[in-house]
């Protein structure tokens, strides 16, 4: 997969050289390119923003600068299908389902806004040109820029690419996975620490008992922390034992 990130703070994306995403870049599983939006500004101050039409506080990012940048970065239609991702707190919420869908894409281009955001005509223009444009929010809060959202998207999507996470089994029982539940609590050595014991079922070596314990804790945790996830489960997802938990 190829991912391009366009930002006025390209250094903000430096963490993408680390950990599993960094390794995926080095081994060629992920072709990640970071661009400085100001390279497409035309004045000597490398201006990318201006005052909002209609008045009000703050500045808005200019469509002409973004247009030049995105025309170059998106490239020709011959380069294959590409999704333009525009992070914004007014977008649809980015979820694990979104990450799963985008992991099937060949190319993502992430346009990081700053100030009051990007002139709305930018999304409109690329939609009209047939580009898949996704305006997404990473949660109900407001950040100063789209770079943190870009980090979130690249990590959430990147770890789903085949070969990025060493053991694909790790992706199976996670929170927000196919079961629709939060993950159960996890433990490692030592079995006793600060007077706290690892639950006995996990030390039993009995696979069915461990699986039952884990499912029960996942159900309890989901009910306590995210009852909305339980409500969203299909009616036949829970068996009689699940319902007692
Ligand atoms: N005026 C905008 C609004 O109220 O919707 C907020 C602009 S915000 C200060 C600047 C930039 O930060 C946005 O263009 C977007 O790129 C990014 N951003 C802020 N919060 C975000 C969120 N929750 N999800 C995704 N991107 C976000």
From TrEMBL:
MF terms (GO), sorted A to Z: tRNA (guanine(37)-N1)-methyltransferase activity
CDD domains assigned: TrmD-like
UniProt xrefs under InterPro entries: Alpha/beta_knot_MTases, tRNA_m1G_MeTrfase_C_sf, tRNA_m1G_MeTrfase_TrmD, tRNA_m1G_MTases_N, tRNA_MeTrfase_TRMD/TRM10
Enzyme class: transferase
Assigned keywords, A-Z: Cytoplasm, Methyltransferase, S-adenosyl-L-methionine, Transferase, tRNA processing
Biological process (GO), any one: tRNA N1-guanine methylation
E.C. number(s) listed in UniProt: 2.1.1.228
Catalysis: reaction(s): guanosine(37) in tRNA + S-adenosyl-L-methionine = N(1)-methylguanosine(37) in tRNA + S-adenosyl-L-homocysteine + H(+)
One Pfam family hit: tRNA_m1G_MT
Record bears the keyword Transferase: yes
GO cellular component, one term: cytosol
tRNA methyltransferase TRMD/TRM10-type domain segment(s): 1-231
Annotated compartments: Cytoplasm
Binding residues for S-adenosyl-L-methionine: 113, 138-143
PANTHER family referenced in this protein's UniProt entry, alphabetically: TRNA (GUANINE-N(1)-)-METHYLTRANSFERASE
Subunit and partners: Homodimer.
Family: Belongs to the RNA methyltransferase TrmD family.
Role, per record: Specifically methylates guanosine-37 in various tRNAs.
Identification of the protein by name: tRNA (guanine-N(1)-)-methyltransferase
Species classification: Bacteria, Bacillati, Actinomycetota, Actinomycetes, Micrococcales
């Amino acid at each position: 997969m190829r991912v391009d990130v366009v930002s006025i703070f390209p250094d903000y994306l430096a963490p993408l050289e680390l950990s599993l995403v960094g390794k995926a870049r080095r081994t060629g599983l992920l072709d990640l390119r970071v661009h400085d939006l100001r390279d497409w500004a035309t004045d000597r101050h490398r201006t990318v923003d201006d005052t909002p039409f209609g008045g009000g506080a703050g500045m808005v990012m200019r469509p002409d600068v973004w247009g030049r940048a995105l025309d170059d970065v998106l490239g020709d239609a011959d380069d294959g299908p590409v999704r333009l991702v525009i992070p914004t707190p007014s977008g649809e919420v980015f979820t694990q389902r979104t990450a799963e869908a985008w992991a099937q894409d060949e190319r993502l281009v992430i346009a990081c806004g700053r100030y009051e955001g990007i002139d709305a005509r930018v999304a409109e223009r690329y939609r009209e040109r047939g580009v898949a444009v996704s305006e997404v929010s990473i949660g109900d809060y407001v950040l100063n820029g789209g770079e943190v959202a870009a980090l979130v998207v690249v990590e959430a999507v990147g770890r789903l690419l085949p070969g990025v996470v060493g053991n694909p089994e790790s992706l199976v029982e996670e929170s927000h996975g196919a079961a629709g539940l939060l993950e159960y609590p996890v433990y490692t050595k030592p079995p006793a620490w600060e007077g706290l014991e690892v639950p006995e079922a996990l030390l039993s070596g009995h696979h069915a008992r461990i699986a039952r314990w884990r499912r029960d804790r996942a159900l309890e945790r989901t009910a306590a922390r995210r009852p909305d996830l339980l409500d969203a489960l299909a009616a036949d997802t829970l068996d009689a034992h699940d319902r007692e938990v």
